[in-house]
Amino acid sequence: MASAASNPTTCSGKDYELPWVEKYRPHKIADIVGNEEAVSRLKVIAKDGNMPNLIFSGPPGTGKTTSILALAHELLGANFKEAVLELNASDDRGIDVVRSKIKMFAQKKVTLPLGRHKIILLDEADSMTSGAQQALRRTMEIYSNTTRFALACNTSAKIIEPIQSRCAIVRFSRLSDRDILDRLLKVVQTENVPYVPEGLEAVVFTADGDMRQALNNLQATYSGFHFVNQDNVFKVCDQPHPLHVINIIRHTVGGNIDDAYAGLKQLYDLGYSASDIITTLFRVVKNYEMPEFVKLEYLKEIGFAHMRIADGVGSILQLSGLLAKLCMARDKAITV
Ligand SMILES: Nc1ncnc2c1ncn2[C@@H]1O[C@H](COP(=O)(O)OP(=O)(O)OP(=O)(O)O)[C@@H](O)[C@H]1O
Ligand SMILES: [Mg+2]
């Protein structure tokens, strides 16, 4: 019987869509967008060949794993398979693994071009126990003439100090809207995605500097609706529509608490949680055209409300209290 599995061509092409995050993962350092300073440092390392122990730290979806892999490929080329040991949070990385697997790999003999080293990639290193990290300290030093380490993490504070002191830290920050938009434009052109510019801007808004999220949201909108416009994006991403939130802000700026409350109630009744609403509120106010002193008051009040919501008090009363404070903040800022 000719099954789909025995005939690989049946699962290629349109039927078998690779997630765009993987399809468009850059393979060369030069293709990584944003974080110019970090990327230019990596380019220098790739050119010189002498990689120091490195820690890549930064928020999710900004290119840490991508950069580590691209750097290792550029340094080792065809030797990548035998000269790289990759461990991530899905692997057991307790102290035993450091003692056995990592040490054994460090001792392994691999013939490499002059000046190149074996590389141990520890992705999501912030999930390693501190015992395992302690066990790495001396290993890193003993084998430093043949083996280098590259660690990736979201918060470098979760890497113990002695390891930090042995590594150069490469910091990644959230990508700019411009960088994400440029990348999305390339993808929609390659994939022939029908779109309107506001649709792509909406994807950028929902992603908040996370390229992985941007690509996933774009793909989800495309596969769900076959057209990328604002409404479809916010339906797929299930976030409060910013235009709706802009209206609420506009009412508070006009001192019109009743209409602002009506808008808020509508959002709340649609099922959005207080933290969904406050996150969108913050992002909208950040980009809202208003005098700076009023904006600062607004952001301060939203920040306090966010803190209370994060503490667990996410009721509609909390949010309406915030609206009242915003109306007052505007009056206060104007009379001062
Ligand atoms: N700077 C970037 N340039 C181009 N594509 C990027 C960039 N950052 C992320 N991406 C895209 O997002 C996907 C995920 O990126 P990556 O795995 O490097 O994120 P990460 O920083 O390791 O995140 P995490 O902290 O969650 O592990 C990549 O496959 C790629 O498609
Ligand atoms: Mg990663």
From TrEMBL:
The keyword Hydrolase does not apply. InterPro entries: AAA+_ATPase (IPR003593), ATPase_AAA_core (IPR003959), DNA_pol3_clamp-load_cplx_C (IPR008921), DNA_Rep/Repair_Clamp_Loader (IPR050238), P-loop_NTPase (IPR027417), Rep_factorC_C (IPR013748), RFC_lid (IPR047854). It comes from Ceratopteris richardii (Triangle waterfern). GO terms for cellular component: DNA replication factor C complex; nucleus. This is AAA+ ATPase domain-containing protein. GO terms for molecular function: ATP binding; ATP hydrolysis activity; DNA binding; DNA clamp loader activity. One of its GO terms (biological process) is DNA-templated DNA replication. The lineage of its organism: Eukaryota, Viridiplantae, Streptophyta, Embryophyta, Tracheophyta. May be involved in DNA replication and thus regulate cell proliferation. Transmembrane segments: none annotated. Its main location: nucleus. Heterotetramer of subunits RFC2, RFC3, RFC4 and RFC5 that can form a complex with RFC1. Belongs to the activator 1 small subunits family. It is found in: Nucleus. The keyword Nucleotide-binding applies. Gene3D superfamilies: 1.10.8.60, 1.20.272.10, P-loop containing nucleotide triphosphate hydrolases (3.40.50.300).
